[in-house]
């Protein structure tokens, strides 16, 4: 409970700014209430930016999650040549500065005539791959193959084992991996700015732009809440899903 209060307390002024038309120092509370901040955020393109961020996060998750599953399964169950080198390559994006990667790869993407949106999604999927791979590798390390072998001995096909045994058992880990990949795409600023070349305007870019000005506190608050709410809702959903009893998949 104390941890929840510690986390939520700094958000209280942010929520108050959402509906503050005027709040000047040293007033302890807004002096005028209204929706000027919401209207200002919408005028700056908040709705379109929200959809861009949502689409980017979902696309990164859709690419990085299955790739992480394949990489984790191969590293857990099969003899991969030069496993140390493979691990180093998979986790290299965590050590590589985003600015350096975006600046270098942007030239290559331009020469290959890859659309900016596709280039941003591909680079962010690579940056999300270490998170999905590690999460699924931990899950596969604790996964009991005996359930799948028992299902096969009872006459289940490979497809039935996959859909009715394998995926239900790993569903919580898959949800966590998908969430982490979504978070990489949703919250990115540097790669989207450099590789997108201004053709993609996301919520983090709007927040940074609004925060750099003066007199935009209410609009910044609206945009900040728009940036926080989707990951927070997904995090709560993933937490509830992970705690939900899965039952006996067999």
TrEMBL record:
Compartment annotation: Cell inner membrane; Cell membrane
The answer to whether the entry has keyword Transport is: yes
List the SUPFAM superfamilies hit by this protein, alphabetically.
MetI-like
Q: What is its main location?
A: membrane
Say yes or no: keyword Cytoplasm present: no
Which Gene3D superfamilies does the entry mention? MetI-like (1.10.3720.10)
Q: Listed GO cellular component terms?
A: plasma membrane
- Kindly give the Pfam families that the UniProt entry links to this protein: BPD_transp_1 (PF00528)
Q: Which residues cross the membrane?
A: 50-72, 84-105, 117-140, 161-183, 189-208, 220-242
| GO terms of biological process kind | transmembrane transport
Q: Per its UniProt entry, which superkingdom is the organism in?
A: Bacteria
Q: How does it sit in the membrane?
A: Multi-pass membrane protein
Alphabetically list the UniProt keywords.
Cell inner membrane, Cell membrane, Membrane, Transmembrane, Transmembrane helix, Transport
- According to the entry, every stretch annotated as the ABC transmembrane type-1 domain falls at 50-238
Family statement: Belongs to the binding-protein-dependent transport system permease family.
Query: What name does UniProt use for this protein?
Result: ABC transporter permease subunit
């Amino acid at each position: 409970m104390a941890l929840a209060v510690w986390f939520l307390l700094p958000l209280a002024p942010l929520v108050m700014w959402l509906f503050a038309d005027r709040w000047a120092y040293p007033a302890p509370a807004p002096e005028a209430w209204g929706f000027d901040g919401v209207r200002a955020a919408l005028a700056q393109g908040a709705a379109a930016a929200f959809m861009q961020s949502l689409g980017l996060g979902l696309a990164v998750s859709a690419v990085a999650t299955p790739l992480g599953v394949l990489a984790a399964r191969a590293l857990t169950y099969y003899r991969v040549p030069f496993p140390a080198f493979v691990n180093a390559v998979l986790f290299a994006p965590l050590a590589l500065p985003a600015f350096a990667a975006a600046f270098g790869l942007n030239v290559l993407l331009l020469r290959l005539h890859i659309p900016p949106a596709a280039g941003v999604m591909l680079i962010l999927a690579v940056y999300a791959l270490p998170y999905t791979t590690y999460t699924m590798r931990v899950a596969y390390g604790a996964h009991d193959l005996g359930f799948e072998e028992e299902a096969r001995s009872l006459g289940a096909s490979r497809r039935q084992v996959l859909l009715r045994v394998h995926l239900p058992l790993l569903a919580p880990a898959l949800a966590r991996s998908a969430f982490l990949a979504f978070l990489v795409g949703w919250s990115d600023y540097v790669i989207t700015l450099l590789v997108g070349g201004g053709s993609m305007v996301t919520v983090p870019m709007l927040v940074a732009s609004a925060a750099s000005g003066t007199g935009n506190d209410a609009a910044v608050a609206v945009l900040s809440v728009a940036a926080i709410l989707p990951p927070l809702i997904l995090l709560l959903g993933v937490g509830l899903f992970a705690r939900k009893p899965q039952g006996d998949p067999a």
